[in-house]
Amino acid sequence: MPAGQDWRMPTFGRSMREHWLLDPDVVYLNHGTVGAPPKRVLRKQQELRDEMERQPSQFVLRELNAEQPMPWRAESRLREAAGRVAPFLGARPDDLVFVPNVTTGLNAVLRSVPLGPGDEVVIADLAYGAVTIAARLVAGERGATLRIVDMPYPIRESGEIVDAFVSALTPRTKLVVADHITAQTALVLPIAAIAAACRERGVPILVDGAHAPGSIAVDIPAIGADWYSANLHKWAHAPRSCGILWAKPEHQATLRHPVISWGSGHGFHAEFEHQATCDPTSYLAAPEGIALLREWDFDAVRAYMHALAREAAGVLTGRWGTTVGVPDDMIGAMVTVPLPEAAGKTTEDATRLRLALLVEDRIEVQLHAWRGRLWTRVSAQVYNDRADIERLAKAVERRTLVASP
Ligand SMILES: Cc1ncc(COP(=O)(O)O)c(C=O)c1O
Predict the structure, then answer these.
(1) Model's pTM, two decimal places?
(2) Which of 75, 138, 233, 396 is at 20 to 30 A from 43, Cα to Cα?
(3) pLDDT tens, residue by residue, 99-112
(4) 183 touches ligand 1 (CB under 6 Å)
(5) CB of 215 shorter than 6 A to ligand 1
(6) 255-280: string of b/e by CB count within 10 Å (b at 16+)?
(7) CA-based max dimension of the chain
(8) pLDDT tens digits, 251-293
(9) Closest ligand 1 atom, CA of 32?
């Protein structure tokens, strides 16, 4: 333990694996893709499931739903859980509801924003594929157009990203959809500056915060966006599937859940909470994941993950002879690094290499083709350490540099 470290605090790195069910034989550098809930959170979820199954109809019909208050509860269980999650995001509990995943939250907003013929929706070329599909479909249904903005790369400073968004705004722009942290490229975008630029021009902005809660500090109202949706099941250690949708008070009355059900048109909370039958335990166990982050000291957790992501960039580019063209303030708990050119350049090359790494080298890492070459996105969680990065560096080296003439 380093001198001066509090003995009650865990030492991050390999020993933290004891908190997860992850296969000890696999180097897991892919936390960002679907998250990995810690054992303690899963135990909490099981306790909730056990409680639910003792009195299923009481639990599902009466305890969850704020529209049918029970004499034994001051507020519904969903409101109670929202009340414990919201402060972690700087938000008021009233402004936030649970959704199964960020895709649902973003769909709700896309389907609720008034769009008509000739209007434009602006989104970056780095946006998550399924989100771009949803935006294109909704825009098309209303006779509006989806305008895709090319993001610069390499990036010298984050202001270049703001400029790229601003250059795409026109008097016809009715909505901007922007990532807080991009998916494959893992860039922490200057989201407050993007939101400010939109506000100045009177354009509403929807933020995709899929990777943000738990990987960087998030204060949703301070961003100044109109809507913010995120996953808690990626980095905030909630069980799958758990996300949130936050809306400015003036937008709440017009927000519609993509699935029409009992609460439809009955206000923001009922719209999202008086829904069809589902398992609510991922939402109710979400506060346990946040409690864990706080116990481990969230500042220390973030500092460790960020330092390891930077170290990964240094080690991998050094070994592979490549460079990362991103300023430090755009790196969070993940970093995307170009592979040696000999690794290939197509999606087929990426799929082949990713599978070989997983099956033969026992390394799970995100790997994709982008702008004419292959890239790997490394997630740096508290259970990872430099040895994991070295394993990846050597495995890729062996498969590409050695194989090349
Ligand atoms: C930026 C971004 N948006 C949206 C999603 C979709 O997340 P989900 O499938 O949990 O809705 C992802 C998934 O990785 C993502 O990276």
Answers:
(1) 0.96
(2) 75
(3) 999 999 999 999 99
(4) yes
(5) no
(6) bebbeeeebeeeebbbbbbbbeeeeb
(7) 76
(8) 999 999 999 999 999 999 999 999 999 999 999 999 999 999 9
(9) 14
